[in-house]
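Throughout our pipeline, every protein is held as a single compact record rather than as scattered files. The record that follows is passed on verbatim for readers who wish to inspect the format.
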Amino acid sequence: MNFTAEKSLNRLADTIWNDIKSIFIILFSLRKKKPNSKKHLGPLSPYGLRHWNPRKNISELAPGYFSLVMATGIVSIAAHNYHFTFIAHGLLYFNIAAYLWLVILTAMRFIMYWERGVADFFNLNKSPGFLSFVAGSAVLGSQFTLIWSHYGLGIIMYFLSVCTWVFLIYTFFTVITIAENKPYFTKSINGLWLLIIVATQSIAVLGILLVQHFGYHAQAVLFFSLLLFLCGCMFYIIIITFITFRMSFFDLTAHEFAPSYWINMGATAISVLAGSLLISNAQNWDFLISILPFLKGFTLLYWAIGTWWIPFIVIMGIWRTVLKHLPLKYHPLYWSMVFPLGMYTVCTSEMATALNLPFLEKIPAVFVYIAIGSWIVAFIGMLGYYIKHPVFKEGYP
């Protein structure tokens, strides 16, 4: 073989070898890279505890996170009513810690990231969530009153709830009225708007529970609770009309049907509780006796509406998760699903007593287990979220 032929063969071999290397480089470059596990460690993991930057959690704190306090409080009261003493007291201690922690985080958010807090307040999709603070404060006050019989703390929480309700409710309605470039109807209205009713009725409930401890002002407190009850009922008629119209005549994706739509039922349940307590306290004020037929009819009406919502929301939940394959992942809004279940338990039991319908007692006797079970599931989901969810990310400023 002459030198020229040998040189040509060497060039051909080099070309083939280079082509093979190029193919392998391309194949290896297409191989899926393993994600950096550090990005998927939460603040409760060893790595997360060493490197956790709390600024992100504070700046992105959901306005409606006090629904955790609402849900825990009403499940605790339901457990107390059915003599689950250990659970009732344990949830009360947990709720105190959760409430104080959320108050601190919310205050820090408005101090450190005030522009984000203000932006959320002017966001019609998020701003109703701030009313969860009112409802959470009132429910915690109800816990102090019913479980601990500590009426002093209950009165403090009552006045705190009233003051924040006056500020938030009128600021909210002023903002949505004078706002310019308002978002499209379907982008603003959702189940969170029903927190307007829940916050209003929660103050009415706490006021009635404490009425015997206001002395000469007892009738004034009952009158104020009656006004709140009536306002809450009217708010529900207006807002649920908008929500039903939005659900029925506009496209609704599985993602948009959030757990907050359970408040469709929760808002009626707390209205039933307020009405039932007014009926039970009618002997303390002659005026309530004169309107007892109205109170009984209206209370039963709202219980019927709330009961109707339960199967529909369950069906929609199956559609959302099973048919539309939307995975169940923890979100603070899931506490908005736990709260109505606990409230339905308490309100049905109270209404059965107030209206002398003992056969209805079988319903809350079952629902109390559903409420406690749903709280446990949501709590486990929250723990799993903070252990596995990537709340810490490299490069976060």
User: Anything to note?
Assistant: Residues 1-33 form one domain. DSSP finds 16 helices and no strands in the chain.
